[in-house]
Design goal:
Radius of gyration: 17 Å
Protein name: Solute carrier family 26 member 3
Membrane topology: Multi-pass membrane protein
Transmembrane segments: 49-68, 88-115
Number of domains: 1
Distance between the termini: 38 Å
Number of strands: 0
Organism: Opsanus beta
Low-confidence stretches: none
Oligomer: single chain
Main location: membrane
Structural class: mainly alpha
Number of helices: 4
Length: 116
């Protein structure tokens, strides 16, 4: 059962990476590293960690807006010398890091009362 679950997670990671407009091999990272980190830091045996399709679509829309496909040229400072895939990975990781910082700040400020 562990092997079949691992295979499904790898295939889902590859598909979600394509939803986020990123190169497919980053899906392998998104299927492997969250599980390893949760193995050491997690507390529940019944939780699913990894990428989610809606989140991948949202990140993909930001990535394709900032780094469009071939044919559309934008004047973006800081992307000189990077390939299109590297630019997209940089944008996706920046958005993800910024969302994590915001989530950490809201946790420190105890903003959870809004959802209660």
């Amino acid at each position: 059962s562990g092997v079949s679950t691992g295979l499904v997670a790898v295939l889902q990671g590859l598909a979600y990476c394509l939803l986020a407009s990123l190169p497919a091999w980053y899906g392998l990272f998104s299927a492997f590293f969250p599980v390893v980190i949760y193995f050491f830091l997690g507390t529940s045996r019944h939780i699913s960690v990894g990428p989610f399709p809606v989140l991948c679509l949202m990140i993909g829309s930001v990535v394709t807006r900032i780094v469009p496909d071939e044919g559309a040229a934008l004047n973006i400072t800081g992307f000189e010398g990077l390939t299109r895939d590297d630019q997209r990975v940089l944008v996706a990781s920046s958005v993800t890091f910024l969302a994590g910082i915001m989530q950490l700040a809201m946790g420190i400020l105890q903003v959870g009362f809004i959802v209660m």
